[in-house]
Design goal:
This protein is mostly helical and 205 residues long. The chain is built from six helices and no strands. Keywords: Coiled coil.
């Protein structure tokens, strides 16, 4: 309940009535004529509660918010502190997601490498089973082992001249070529031996 103090002055001779034209009261016959009313102390009406002077309350709130220290304290009371556990959990989840992505990419790369190696093996297997590969292998084998086998048969022919070389299927052209090379080597050896016994060399001995 609000309490108000109101001063009511009743002045004799003062016409406080207001005419229909809303003119000011007539103070011409007032005994307070000539008194300076500015020096009179007035007591304002006081009320209890928050509705007494809203302008003053709003001004107080504004001054409080303008103070950074007070505002910071108010914010601390209104805004809850940061939950550290929640932040740590989010960071862990982010790291786990990153690790899972890296592991997934590594598994994909390994799978691609295995598929590439398998494709190479299949290509080699198909080529080995083809006729071209078989012909190439047979040609290289006959060329490599044929010369060695003919050489062995020639050695047998020298050691056993009674054997029929034609029945052994020796390459006669290759045999003649080898015999010519051996004859040339023997001739060169004889020439070197003759050169060592020349008179030109003996006079220096």
């Amino acid at each position: 309940m609000s309490v108000a103090k109101i001063y009511i002055f009743t002045v004799q001779g003062v016409d406080t009535s207001v005419d229909t034209n809303h003119q000011c009261p007539n103070f011409s016959n007032s005994p307070f004529k000539g008194v300076n009313t500015n020096n009179l102390a007035t007591t304002p009406a006081t009320e209890e509660g928050t509705s007494g002077n809203p302008d003053a309350i709003l001004g107080l709130k504004t001054s409080i918010l303008e103070n950074p220290i007070v505002a910071k304290k108010l914010l601390k009371g209104v805004v809850p502190p940061l939950d550290k556990e929640e932040v740590v959990d989010k960071l862990k989840k982010t790291k786990e997601d990153g690790d899972a992505t890296v592991a997934r990419l590594e598994a994909k790369v390994t799978e691609l490498k295995e598929k590439s190696a398998m494709a190479k093996k299949l290509a080699i297997k198909e080529y080995k089973s083809s006729d071209d590969f078989q012909e190439t292998v047979e040609f290289m084998a006959s060329k490599y082992f044929g010369k060695g086998f003919d050489f062995c048969k020639r050695q047998i022919g020298h050691l056993h001249p009674d054997l029929d070389i034609q029945d052994m299927r020796i390459d006669t052209d290759l045999l003649e070529e080898e015999e010519d090379k051996e004859e040339e080597k023997e001739k060169e050896k004889e020439d070197r031996e003759k050169g060592d016994t020349s008179p030109f060399l003996l006079k220096y001995l």
